[in-house]
């Protein structure tokens, strides 16, 4: 009774109070709002009418109470305001709703807002507010909505927010908040929406959240939450949205989630969840979206649309799921629109039951182990826009019914084992924009009907067996951006109408048998950026109008028969790669190429180019690969090239270049391959080359280089191949070469080197392909250390003045297959293991004996002149005759090889700089092994040598 | 909700975007690279977007652009080898000596029909010598010394009639040393420092698995 009596009194007193302060209240608000205004920057003038002459209740954004005595609402959302939130807001004591969202406000949320005891809704989201969420906000006892997300707020969630027991909406998403989710969240019994998405929250999801029984939306996606999903979440019966994607949650999916009978959206993607998908999820009859992708889930798919009648999206991609697709994954009359099951270990044939799923719009079964034929009933999926079946083992033909799938926009069937032709019915697909059939076994011609698919933007038929010509109607595809027909058996010319596909950006026709010349209509392809035509039989000069194509960035026309000038390809100044290797281009190298400042790869090798290297190339400071080999270039290696210090491959071999080997090459710290061989360079091997510490291949052979081999060569510790043969080098072999520990090929033959073979060569234990010191003037004994070259397969020391005995240690060279010690001054017994080598390996020495030569006991007893002059003459005649025949045969074979090589026209310079030894390569690495039975090669296998020894 | 969907659809579009390069040998080498740790960046030039791997450093091709040499000896690399290496059908020289490569030698190396030389010495390979090596009919040089290989020497290797050099010294092999075929001529040094390796076996008397 007392209570009832007191209540009217309190009411009376409060009404009295309000009446007393009524007038003063709005005027106080007025001056307070002026101070607030003074701290805001208002470029759009929304606060223009905030002036004392105007009734406060008509000020923009303000809402007054019904009696016009209090300011109860302030809404300046999306007003373009910047500046700070003034602490003065605290004087608007009657304020119930404050909305400053979607502005450019900076600074902190002032703690003084905690004084707004009547505040029910606070919206500060989408600003640039910083600092922490102050504990004082926990004083706002009446607060129902707090949305401060999408700012730059830092620090932890203050546990004081747990005092806001009336809170319905708490939005803290898209900020920089960290720490764990406070357990006090469980005090918010009225909470309906909790959005913590995209912060840096860590730790566990507190089980206390299960006390928020009103919760309808819980999103904490994009944080660093860990541990298991609390099973108690299953108590949140009102929950409609549960979004925990992209955290580091682990353990299995709690079966209790099956109790969330109102759940519409469940997203757990991008966690570390393992175990099976709980069958209890099938109880979620309201579920519309289920995304469990990118976890470690295993077992079979047991999600049954027959029970999840409302399911629209099913995303289980990127897990370890096994087995097939359950027959009742989708039933008729379902709502299922999206099924994404890619990147699992699923297998089986295409599930025919799925064909009843007429609601299906997108189906992705890619990157699994599905096999068998595609069902002809595919066209039952009449609403399907995207069919993604790539990276499986589907086989058989493409069903012609595919032409009835009139909604189809994307058809992704690449990397399967499909055979047969593309059905002509495909031409009915008017909405088709992407057709990826690459890496299958499809054959036949590309149907002309395909060009009826007028929406097509991307076609990729790479890596099939298509024959015939490119459809002459291809020009109808006005939207075509990407066309790849690479690696098929297409023949005939490029249809001129291709030039009418004016949107084309990437064109890849490489690795076919296409022929003819480029049509002049190419000039219309002004968007063209990438064009690769390599390995075809295109010919003739390039249309001059190609110069108009200003967007070209990657051009590869290598291995064709194009002729004439390169100039039409120099119109673009955005070139990155230009590869014209192995054509018949002639004329000079256009200086305009230097306009493409980003050019990294320029390969013009194996053409008939003349003139000099343009000095403007000094501007190509990004150049990584410069190959001008096998042309008729003249002049010197110009000083300007020294600016191109990013070069890793510099191939100028087989030209007619003159001058000296530039010493500035030593500044190219990344240089890995330098080939200046077969030119007319003179002067010395510059000592500065020793600074190219990454050099792997150095080939300067067949020039007129003279002087000594610089000892600095020993600084090239990465060097694999050193070839200085066929020059005029003099002096000794520098002993520093022993530091080139990775050498597997060393050729110094056909020079005028003198002195002894340094015994240090024995330290080059990785020498393998050859050690060739032949045809020099080396003297002294063969160092026994060469017996340590255990991997050496070929040793040529012939035509020197080496003397003394063959060191017995050489007999341990078990890898040796070719040996030539002939034409020296050697004497004594050859190691017994050499008996398998032919006589020619040893002839022309002073006095060698032992197998295959005469046995040493015989040679001791016999005199020098044990053959009559006539016999000697006969032998000489025989030798001259047979060697002439051999020479003729060799020349014939070399010519054959030369022509074959021009014909086959494969990228010789791609063979990593070994092309200069082409014949030898074939001889040594090559297919025709029988040739090794010729001179200097060991005939007998070791196994057959061994018994002789015993 | 909608943005998530858009993102996942974009991601799926990315995964199906067209491949510009599918040269199998380049892919095999690139797969090798992903298994290796390369602190000194010797594999830096291995750009998988190039038409073929023939301009990659440490890779040598023949005139048909097939990889015939892989030279990564003494390159400070570690990691493991994978089955992809079996895809280098034309490889003649596999030089991976003196590194820190560990794990088993993949049996797929037995697919390298053209292999002349396999130099895996000076690594940390463990497990057994693959029996599949018996298929390497062109093999002349097989150097597996200085590793941690266990098990016995596969008897199948006696059929490698071209084998000139076979070195398994300094491993942990067991059983007996075969004497058939090319094994009749390999010096005893090729088998040194394998504590549990006996032999050479007496033809017909010692069983192949003896002591293993």
Automatic annotation (TrEMBL), chain A:
The keyword RNA-binding does not apply. Its EC number is 2.7.11.1. Its main location: membrane. One of its GO terms (cellular component) is membrane. The keyword Ubl conjugation does not apply. InterPro entries: Leu-rich_rpt, Leu-rich_rpt_typical-subtyp, LRR_dom_sf, LRR_N_plant-typ, LRR_R13L4/SHOC2-like, Plant_RL_S/T_kinase. The chain crosses the membrane at residues 872-895. It catalyses: L-threonyl-[protein] + ATP = O-phospho-L-threonyl-[protein] + ADP + H(+); L-seryl-[protein] + ATP = O-phospho-L-seryl-[protein] + ADP + H(+). One of its GO terms (molecular function) is protein serine/threonine kinase activity. Residues 1-24 form the signal peptide. Gene3D superfamilies: Ribonuclease Inhibitor. This is non-specific serine/threonine protein kinase.
TrEMBL record, chain B:
GO terms for biological process: signal transduction. Residues 80-170 form the Disease resistance R13L4/SHOC-2-like LRR domain. Residues 1-21 form the signal peptide. Pfam families: LRR_14, LRRNT_2. SUPFAM superfamilies: L domain-like. It comes from the Eukaryota. This is Somatic embryogenesis receptor kinase 1-like. Keywords: Leucine-rich repeat, Repeat, Signal. GO terms for molecular function: transmembrane receptor protein serine/threonine kinase activity. Residues 23-62 form the Leucine-rich repeat-containing N-terminal plant-type domain. InterPro entries: LRR_dom_sf (IPR032675), LRR_N_plant-typ (IPR013210), LRR_R13L4/SHOC2-like (IPR055414). GO terms for cellular component: plasma membrane. Coiled coil: none annotated.
């Amino acid at each position: 009774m007392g209570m009832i009596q007191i209540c009217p009194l309190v009411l009376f007193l409060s009404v009295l109070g309000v009446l007393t302060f009524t007038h003063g209240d709005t005027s106080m608000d007025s001056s307070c709002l002026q101070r607030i205004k003074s701290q805001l920057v208002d470029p759009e003038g929304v606060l223009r009418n905030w002036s004392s002459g105007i009734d406060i209740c008509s000020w923009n954004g303000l809402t007054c109470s019904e009696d016009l005595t209090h300011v109860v609402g302030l809404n300046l959302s999306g007003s373009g305001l910047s500046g700070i939130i003034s602490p003065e807001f605290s004087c608007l004591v009657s304020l119930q709703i404050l909305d400053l969202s979607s502005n450019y406000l900076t600074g902190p949320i002032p703690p003084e807002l905690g004084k707004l005891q009547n505040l029910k809704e606070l919206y500060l989201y989408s600003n640039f507010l910083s600092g922490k969420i102050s504990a004082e906000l926990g004083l706002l006892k009446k607060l129902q909505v707090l949305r401060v997300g999408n700012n730059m707020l830092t620090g932890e969630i203050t546990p004081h927010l747990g005092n806001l027991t009336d809170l319905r909406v708490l939005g803290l998403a898209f900020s920089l908040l960290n720490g764990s989710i406070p357990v006090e969240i469980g005090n918010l019994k009225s909470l309906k929406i909790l959005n913590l998405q995209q912060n840096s929250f860590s730790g566990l999801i507190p089980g206390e959240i299960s006390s928020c029984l009103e919760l309808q939306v819980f999103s904490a996606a994009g944080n660093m939450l860990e541990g298991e999903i609390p099973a108690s979440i299953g108590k949140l019966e009102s929950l409609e949205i549960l979004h925990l994607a992209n955290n580091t949650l682990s353990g299995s999916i709690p079966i209790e989630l099956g109790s969330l009978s109102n759940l519409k959206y469940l997203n757990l993607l991008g966690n570390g969840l393992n175990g099976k998908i709980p069958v209890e999820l099938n109880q979620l009859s309201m579920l519309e979206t289920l995304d469990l992708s990118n976890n470690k889930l295993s077992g079979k798919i047991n999600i049954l649309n027959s029970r999840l009648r409302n399911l629209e999206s099913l995303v289980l991609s990127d897990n370890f799921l096994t087995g097939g697709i359950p027959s009742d994954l989708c039933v008729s009359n379902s709502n299922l629109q999206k099924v994404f099951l890619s990147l699992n270990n699923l297998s089986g044939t295409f599930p025919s039951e799925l064909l009843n799923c007429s609601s299906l719009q997108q189906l992705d079964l890619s990157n699994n182990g599905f096999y068998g034929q595609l069902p002809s009933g595919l066209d039952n999926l009449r609403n399907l826009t995207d069919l993604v079946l790539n990276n499986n083992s589907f086989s058989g033909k493409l069903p012609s019914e595919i032409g009835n799938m009139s909604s189809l926009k994307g058809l992704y069937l690449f990397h399967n084992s499909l055979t047969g032709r593309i059905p002509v019915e495909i031409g009915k697909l008017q909405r088709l924009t992407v057709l990826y059939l690459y890496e299958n076994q499809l054959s036949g011609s590309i149907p002309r009907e395909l060009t009826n698919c007028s929406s097509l933007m991307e076609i990729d038929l790479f890596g099939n067996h298509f024959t015939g010509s490119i459809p002459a109607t291809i020009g109808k595809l006005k939207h075509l951006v990407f066309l790849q027909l690479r690696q098929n058996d297409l023949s005939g010319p490029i249809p001129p109408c291709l030039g009418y596909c004016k949107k084309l950006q990437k064109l890849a026709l490489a690795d076919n048998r296409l022929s003819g010349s480029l049509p002049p209509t190419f000039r219309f392809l002004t968007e063209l950026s990438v064009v690769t035509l390599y390995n075809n039989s295109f010919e003739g000069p390039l249309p001059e109008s190609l110069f108009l194509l200003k967007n070209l960035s990657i051009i590869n026309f290598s291995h064709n028969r194009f002729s004439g000038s390169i100039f039409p390809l120099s119109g673009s100044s955005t070139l990155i790669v230009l590869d014209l290797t192995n054509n018949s281009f002639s004329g000079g190298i256009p200086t305009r190429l230097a306009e493409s400042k980003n050019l990294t790869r320029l390969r013009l090798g194996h053409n008939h180019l003349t003139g000099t290297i343009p000095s403007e190339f000094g501007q190509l400071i990004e150049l990584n690969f410069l190959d001008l080999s096998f042309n008729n270039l003249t002049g010197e290696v110009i000083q300007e090239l020294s600016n191109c210090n990013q070069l890793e491959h510099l191939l100028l071999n087989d030209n007619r270049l003159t001058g000296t080997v530039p010493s500035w090459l030593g500044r190219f710290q990344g240089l890995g391959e330098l080939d200046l061989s077969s030119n007319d360079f003179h002067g010395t091997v510059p000592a500065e080359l020793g600074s190219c510490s990454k050099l792997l291949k150095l080939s300067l052979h067949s020039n007129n280089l003279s002087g000594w081999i610089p000892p600095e060569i020993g600084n090239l510790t990465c060097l694999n191949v050193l070839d200085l043969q066929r020059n005029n080098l003099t002096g000794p072999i520098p002993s520093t070469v022993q530091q080139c520990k990775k050498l597997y090929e060393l050729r110094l033959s056909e020079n005028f080197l003198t002195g002894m073979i340094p015994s240090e060569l024995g330290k080059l234990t990785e020498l393998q392909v050859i050690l060739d010191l032949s045809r020099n003037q080396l003297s002294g004994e063969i160092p026994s250390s060469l017996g340590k070259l255990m991997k050496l397969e070929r040793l040529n020391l012939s035509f020197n003045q080496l003397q003394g005995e063959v060191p017995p240690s050489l007999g341990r060279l078990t890898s040796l297959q070719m040996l030539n010690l002939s034409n020296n001054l050697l004497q004594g017994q050859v190691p017994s293991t050499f008996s398998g080598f032919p006589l020619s390996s040893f002839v022309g020495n002073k006095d060698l004996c032992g197998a295959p030569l005469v046995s040493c006991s015989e040679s001791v007893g016999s005199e020098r002149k044990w053959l009559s002059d006539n016999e000697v003459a006969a032998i000489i005649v025989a030798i001259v005759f047979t060697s002439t025949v051999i020479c003729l045969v060799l020349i014939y074979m070399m010519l054959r090889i030369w022509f074959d090589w021009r014909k086959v026209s494969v990228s010789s310079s791609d063979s990593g700089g070994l092309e200069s030894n082409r014949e030898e390569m074939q001889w040594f690495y090559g297919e025709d092994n029988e040739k090794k039975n010729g001179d200097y090669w060991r005939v007998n296998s070791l196994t057959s040598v061994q018994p002789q020894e015993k | 909700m909608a943005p998530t969907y858009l993102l996942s659809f974009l991601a799926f579009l990315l995964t199906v975007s067209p491949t510009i390069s599918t040269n199998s040998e380049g892919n095999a080498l690139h797969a090798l690279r992903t298994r290796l740790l390369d602190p000194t960046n010797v594999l830096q030039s291995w750009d998988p977007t190039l038409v073929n791997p023939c301009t990659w450093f440490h890779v040598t091709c023949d005139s048909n652009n097939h990889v015939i040499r892989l030279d990564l000896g003494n390159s400070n690399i570690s990691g493991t080898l994978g089955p992809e290496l079996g895809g280098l059908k034309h490889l003649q020289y596999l030089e991976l000596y003196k590194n820190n490569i560990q794990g088993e030698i993949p049996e797929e190396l037995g697919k390298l029909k053209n292999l002349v030389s396999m130099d895996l010495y000076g690594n940390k390979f463990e497990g057994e010598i693959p029996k599949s090596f018996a298929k390497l009919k062109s093999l002349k040089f097989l150097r597996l010394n200085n590793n941690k290989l266990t098990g016995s020497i596969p008897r199948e290797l006696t059929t490698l009639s071209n084998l000139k050099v076979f070195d398994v010294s300094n491993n942990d092999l067991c059983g007996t040393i075969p004497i058939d075929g090319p094994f009749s001529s390999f010096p005893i040094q090729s088998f040194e420092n394998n504590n549990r390796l006996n032999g050479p076996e007496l033809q017909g008397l010692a069983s192949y698995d003896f002591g293993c």
